[in-house]
Design goal:
about 20% strand, about 280 residues, eight-stranded mixed sheet, Rossmann fold, alpha/beta
């Protein structure tokens, strides 16, 4: 990272949780919200690259990285609100991957005045939990995975999740760049915890799945062509139901395209940001 970006770090209080965050740079606010198979370090290539023109912010969800998971009711969207208030973000662009994507969509529905634009990467969505909305492959995967979680078979559960999200359910590991694969698996291993499945956030009511047309902010949807079948279909749905949305596919990428192909992702993000009205 260039020495003049002035990186700072700290903790924001959300309920009784302490949410670890890092900021760098100056300018319009650009907030990165990580996937549930990693922590805020997955944004390293973006945090470094955009700190010369933006004030970048990344943080660890409770239960990930340097943020602990206390035993209390919580919502990830409230944790995000606590972090941006601590940092002093009045309005910004929110980039969320997977669980982070679902979080920023919920956040945008509750706090539209704080959102300049959204970038949704392999995004989940609150309310997408009806088995009738899932593919047969997804149901099979989740049934087997949750059985391993129930049986506390940590090693097999961790390997199954890493294969599905980091390699991609349809891609052989030999096709995956080994440098990316090693790093992504390291981050996954350091953040995987069976205990985390016992802590479920309080859902947004009504959930986002039926409210996408309420999102007024310009939205970029990014999906890897080797991500799960259900998330590829969800990307199509996001693009069709969010009024001002654009969808881009990154080839030879699974669930973390920003980490797997950082140069290409950064160019896509930079092009999107350059088209937004100046604050």
């Amino acid at each position: 990272m260039p020495p003049d970006t002035g990186m700072t770090s700290g903790y924001a209080t959300s309920g009784v949780a302490k949410i670890y965050f890092e900021t760098a740079g100056a300018g319009p606010d650009l907030v990165f919200v990580h996937a549930g198979v990693s922590d805020s370090r997955m944004w390293e290539p973006q945090f470094d690259a955009f700190a010369n023109r933006f004030r970048v912010l990344r943080y660890d969800h409770r239960g990930f990285g340097k943020s602990r998971m206390p035993d209390e009711p919580f919502t990830l969207r409230d944790d995000l609100l606590s972090v941006v208030r601590q940092v002093g973000v009045a309005k910004g662009v929110f980039v969320g991957c997977s669980m982070g994507g679902a979080t920023v969509v919920d956040f945008a529905l509750e706090h539209p005045e704080m959102v300049t634009a959204l970038v949704l990467v392999g995004s989940g969505l609150s309310g997408l939990n009806d088995p009738r909305q899932l593919s047969a492959d997804a149901i099979k995967h989740w049934t087997e995975f949750l059985t391993l979680v129930r049986d506390k078979d940590v090693e097999r559960a961790r390997e199954m999740e890493a294969k599905y999200w980091i390699d991609g359910p349809s891609r052989d590991s030999a096709q995956v760049d080994p440098v990316y694969r090693t790093r992504a698996r390291q981050l996954h291993r350091e953040n995987f915890s069976i205990e985390s499945f016992a802590h479920q956030q309080q859902p947004l009511q009504p959930p986002a799945i039926g409210r996408l047309r309420e999102i007024a902010a310009p939205t970029l949807i990014v999906i890897g062509d080797h991500d799960s079948e259900d998330l590829v279909k969800l990307a199509d749905r996001l693009a069709s139901e969010i009024p001002n949305a654009t969808r881009i596919t990154i080839k030879n990428a699974a669930h973390l395209p920003s980490l797997e192909h950082p140069g290409q992702f950064n160019e896509i993000l930079d092009n999107f940001l350059s088209q937004l009205p100046r604050p």
